[in-house]
Each structure stands twice: as C-alpha cells, then as structure tokens.
Amino acid sequence: MKILYLLIIAFGSSVAAQTITFNGCHNLFDNQNFIFNKTGVDSYNKGIYITTPVDGQPCGGLGTCEFKIQWNNTLTRWEFLADEGNGTFASPLLIYYNSTGNTGSQRPPSNTFGTWVENTAVTSGQCGGNLTGSNSTMTGDVHSSSLATSEVTKSKIQVFPNPVSDVIHISGINNGQKVQIYNADGQLVRSEKFDQKINVSLLSTGVYVLKIITENFESYEFKFVKK
C-alpha cells in the first residue's frame, strides 16, 4: 500500500538549483517523473525537498504518494522518505538512504554518487537494490562529485596499512568527530567516535569503506581491504 509507494526511483529536474526530478522503480510505479521542490534548509543548512502537490501525486495506480529528501544529521546521511499516508511526514517511511555520499554539500547526492541503498524492510526488495544510473534517474539540484576543498583536505589524510589485519592508522586530520565503516553492500557495520587508531580485527575478510566525519560535518571516504 502506501509503503510500496515510497519506492519511487526517478529524480529529474526542470528548474536548476531548486528542483529534483526522480524516476525509477517501475515495478511499483508507473514510468513517470516525481518532482521535488526545495522548500527550505534545515539547521545544518542542508536543503529540504518535497514532492508537489503535497497531497495528490499519482503513484503507479496505487493511489497518491508524497516524498521528501532531507538530511539526517544523527546518522550523517541523506534520506529518501515517504509520508505515512496522510500527506504529512510526522512518522515517515525510509525508502532509501545514501550511505557514502559526500556530506559536505548542501544538496543531496545524485543516484550515481556515493551509494543510495534500498531499505528492503519497507520496499520488500521490489526496487532492484541500490539506485544506479541504469535503473533510475535523478537530476536537478543534486551534487555528483566531492567538493573541491574536501578533495584537497583528503589528499593530506593517510589511512594505513592497506590491506590491514588488525589496526588502521589515520593521520593528517585533527578535527575528526566520527568514524564509520561500510561493507561492500553499503551496509553500516561500525560507527564510533573518531580515533587515530581503529581496531578492525573482528571484521570479516573483504573490501570496506572507511568514512571519516569531521566536526564541520565534512566527510572523507577511503576504501580498504581487510585481510
């Protein structure tokens, strides 16, 4: 029902810097564009985008859908939300979240930047997994690359050794706030206070993404291999 509506996967934009257009998840929705308009910014100066009309958007023959894209500062991620069925977002349903997108931007990542992960607990896996350029479009007021200033800072940060067996060392950053580790499927497996030494001995062998979040809410990501 309404939960299924939430799976829209196509953002397209017709008005630069103020609009996001999304199109996707045709298993649950008709092949149509959902238009998100920027309605303001939150206390962290991140954009807030809501589909219009607020109540009454046709949704694949299943009724009507309302969606929102906004920043979740507690979990340091952008989220794609659906309303609870009343045209409001008092208790929204999480459809997708961007697990590795650049958090320094005021705009949400495109569907090809970072990793937009499908919340299968809500969608029952009907949207084909993570958003990609092949199964959806998202255009308009989105960012698609790391901020230039972030790249300069990132070049000074060192994460070693790589591959690693027990402890990862981080150098070149003095304002770290949090460290997160994601597996190859984009799932968060570790989240803890920043430290220059991160014990990864209990992780399974494989490829991971180490995400460093600063006190200024910038983020830097590094791939590493756990032996």
TrEMBL record:
Keyword tags: Signal
Please tell me whether the keyword Glycoprotein is annotated for this protein.
no
Per the record, the coiled-coil ranges are: none
What InterPro entries does UniProt report for this protein, alphabetically?
Answer: Secre_tail
Domain (Secretion system C-terminal sorting) ranges: 159-219
Signal peptide coordinates: 1-16
Specify whether Ion transport is a keyword of the entry: no
Protein name per its UniProtKB record: Por secretion system C-terminal sorting domain-containing protein
